[in-house]
Design a protein that fits this description.
Chains A, B, C, D: It catalyses: N-acetyl-L-glutamate 5-semialdehyde + phosphate + NADP(+) = N-acetyl-L-glutamyl 5-phosphate + NADPH + H(+). 4 copies of one chain form a homotetramer. By secondary structure, chain A is an alpha/beta fold. The first copy, chain A, contains 9 helices and 13 strands. In chain A, strands 8-9-7-10-13-12-11 form a 7-stranded mixed beta sheet. A 6-stranded parallel beta sheet of chain A has the order 2-1-3-4-6-5, with helices on both faces. The radius of gyration of chain A is 19 Å and the shape is globular.
């Protein structure tokens, strides 16, 4: 039985980690750490966990040793925090943005502050089993990519060699990506029904996509009406016809447990839509070809395959368990 | 030309007052007063007013004299504020809860604090032209009822004498009623898609309904997925058959410019639904009879007929203008 | 291993039955029967089942014997269908409205047609384990109540003896209750954001509530913005204080695996909200007391505890398996 | 007083035309023609027009002469219909797709059928006053562009000469663009919360954009959760810096009554969002620059500036009235 603890356990990613770990037959939860709510019941913050657990949040300084430690803590703060807690666990799986970009100058360009733990930057293995399964099996430091980055990476990876280097990514996201802290912009009356282009250019996840795919990726990001869910539509140029493209996707993902190819000719569900994926660990990928333009599409639940689910998948790989353990929920239709 | 100013102009009711007044041919706006944003452009807070006005928010201590002053300021604070600004205008139209209940003990029961301007309490005329048109025509102090109260009062008024004294009101509301200040509960990810019974018993608007209708009203209130819109479903018991009930509604509202009777036998739009009423000053009322049980239904836009629109309607009555001036927008379908 | 088949498998309840049965360790699916789509893959209609199954829909005349047969077929048609397929399975669990009301005159009053299989009417055991666990353990014919009826029955049952006989129920529901067939009224542009009182009086589920609780129940039903989810707010009158009421709920539901008491003093999640319950088999129940008025509230996912989940729970009880098998999904937050 | 009639008056665009014309001080409505509902009251189909009009739908063969005839009739059917009704009015303003593309081979490529009224194709003036004001002032045949085309054309027009010829357009749309006829894909339970890429490549509006801007436009279109509203995000490449781009927009739109430049540095409303524009005739345009990449954004209400509002604006231009007459509604916030 693996003992796993969660820092940042009161946030949305933290809550999703707790949900998945509580349903995981090979894991027992050590601690759920929260700076805001130490001493409070976990289910008072995550009401979907009522009757699932009597767990109470621990304060950060109460953290004790465990096998796997998840840090679902804020960007910019995690680079200070992580070196301090690293010795508490054999494996640390970080869900923040702080260890995703190995080049500190790139980090600074996208996060606006210098990195303060540069010595760790190139030790982390990206939490994408589809690309780094072997490395993850022995990694002690794992960094789960951003939700839109994971979607775009899985959409684009099969196109390497088939299209030119420039890709334009249009990402759309629900509101849960902004986290559980209230601000004027995510007030319901303001955010409901919005199509808010919050990053017209240079969304920071583009840097991760470029690094993990080799493409020169540009990303625009828009908040649309949804709580969960991310979709990316990626535009590239190349000579490959539809058959070639389909073959490339099949070769990459034919054996993957959590990537489905969704590229049908007709029907309301012919291409990836995150609406189907709430709570599930699938990333659906699809594509369409029009002459020399190739559109690649991916969808996932930002809190699951785009965060907590990918992290648990990494735990499974790292600890030698079945990769799908605890991740069997298929999603709901309709929802 | 009537000169009207708005206090609390940065809130949602304040913004709606400004929208209506900017489109009103008989009014010019004096000042838009805000404690939070003095010196900022009004359209930086109310982006739907871009290209409508170059108005800038004034600080409260910059308030100068005007003909009509609207106070769209918070409950509990307004009872202190209003006596101080009363002399700034010939007529004050208050949209807060502080002058709706003439009995200070009732106020204290529902608002949790003692009233500090009790001498004014029974001077205010309720801002319901359908009930108090003559009084409003000469009123210097007007108090617009709560949005759910207005809906329930208009739904129930025709039933006086036809049903027994006890009425149970089930009110549903969108999120804009909570105002423009962010809090954990109205974060989009929390509030979206919710059915949140925030007042299982004793919603404070029930006291206004009892006062204005003579019924003994009990009100439950639930937040449902919507930004604008209030609907009340009122349950009463009596002997009246459907024809009698319909006649009563016709007698009350046949000549009313802003109350429509919506009680059809079939169709998706057979009964009042606030979805049709966003931006409009209508209150739609309807009913159904089943033996001795009578269900009365009303819907309105909480920010218009449930607030700013009713206030402008009162201004029209008070200043002797056509009652519908500036209030002609009929609502959108579909939306 | 229990062999279970589903008739009406292309509908929303049918799809949810398939999802639950595919994840059930003690069941194998025999056939998924559909009159509309025989020969088509199940996942072309229920896209959340992609990669879960290669099952293909069977035509009704291809139905073969199984252990448990679920009929998720339309009201009025099922009373003709069921007698014909009854011999195909040891146990038939019906999710239609046709065998919920033992009195044929009540059926005719609420469904508008005479019942044509009256000889079966009083053989069916209601699919509410919380009330009929012992009978269900040996029942060959089981009828799952309507979604709003189950919610109201579970909300009201503990109040028997504590309040008077008259209860008024305000039910709210998402759009999936209307089924998977398109009509003008459930077009997205019409239904989105609506508060549609589709049954101002005499919703047919009230007859089930009266029968199963002994109360004289009246039900109003409103469609609100949601796909899944039902909430009922029930108004009753009595002398019991809050402590007595809480004790009654605890006595009834202390040992129930799928009923949670949610009645807190504060917080956005203080009372039952179906938003938390999508995909889960919980029915959350809560209450509030104001003098002699008692408000009881319940929430559930209409397709799970209000339909397919309750049916699987009944299968578990009937076949002597653990009652919670295959029903472990706790729901998502936020969603 | 201009006498205007509407064919296709029972559709969503038809309803919006009626709403705008009823509020237009210089127009009286002649007939509202519907094939589906002749003889029925207009407000039974467009419930927001209750108390606005007693108009009844006419059958198509009852059409009599008027000054301006709007054809809000289906694609592919209108090319047959229009030549037959052309003589009924001095000016015909068509809202269908049939007369937007002057080259019949392009029409056939995008609409899948040969054009049957090719002699009319190059007589129509595009209904974009911002580009064709002088021509519209004397046009007898006007063709209003597609909603996404209008948005993209207004977003891109100022960039001509500043960026290269290739533009990639990512369009997002609400559900009302699919019209008022129910189908499986626009059932609420299916469409709600969706991110549905219904045109991954080659959305037909791209042909209009290419024609009206001179760019080589490619368009992807996605249905997102909204009833009204279209947003386009256009990607282009060029050397212009932000100041140059801003100047170009100002030069084009400084005097335009219905185009606002929304390109701020911060805030939830810094870029165009259709959420603010429901019911209004504004097209908001904005942009951002990142090195050699330029992102242009536009938002509008597909039924107003993307259809009925643009058509009324054309009527105003054509009949020599003030261009803004009847189009004063500014939109709502919050909504």
């Amino acid at each position: 039985m693996i003992r796993a603890s969660v820092m940042g356990a009161a946030g949305y990613l933290g809550g999703e980690l707790l949900r998945l770990l509580l349903g995981h037959p090979g894991v027992e939860i050590g601690q759920a750490v929260s700076t805001r709510f130490p001493g409070r019941r976990v289910d008072s913050v995550h009401p979907n966990l009522r009757a699932q657990t009597d767990l109470v949040f621990s304060a950060p300084d109460e953290l004790v040793r465990c096998d796997v430690l998840f840090t679902a803590t804020p960007h910019r703060a995690t680079m200070t925090l992580l070196p301090r807690v690293r010795e508490k666990a054999g494996t640390v799986i970080d869900l923040s943005g702080d260890f995703r970009l190995p080049d500190p100058s790139v980090y600074e360009r996208y996060y606006g502050v210098p990195h303060t733990a540069t010595e760790l930057l190139d030790v982390f293995v990206p939490g994408v089993p589809e690309l780094f399964r072997d490395e993850l099996a022995k990694a002690d430091l794992i960094s789960v990519p951003g939700c839109m980055a994971t979607a775009a990476v899985l959409a684009l990876r099969p196109l390497a060699g088939l299209v030119g280097p420039d890709v334009q990514i249009d990402a759309r996201t629900g509101s849960s990506g902004s986290g559980a802290l209230a601000g004027d912009g995510n007030l319901h009356a303001e955010r409901s029904g919005a199509m808010r282009v919050f990053a017209p250019v240079r969304h920071r996840h583009e840097a991760e996509v470029s690094r993990l795919t080799g493409f020169d990726a540009r990303m625009t990001a828009t908040g649309v009406e949804a709580v969960r869910g991310v979709q990316v539509v990626c535009h590239a140029t190349g000579d490959a016809d539809e058959r070639t493209v389909r073959r490339a996707y099949r070769e990459h993902y034919g054996g993957e447990p959590f990537v489905r190819i969704v590229a049908h000719r007709r029907g309301a569900h012919r291409l990836p839509d995150p609406k189907l994926l709430s709570g599930s660990n699938y990333c659906d990928v699809g594509f369409a070809v029009d002459g020399d333009r190739i559109t690649a599409i991916a969808a996932l639940d930002n809190l699951v395959k785009g965060g907590a689910g990918a992290a648990v998948q990494c735990l499974n790989v790292r600890t030698g368990q079945s990769e799908t353990l605890g991740l069997g929920f298929p999603g709901l239709h309709p929802l």
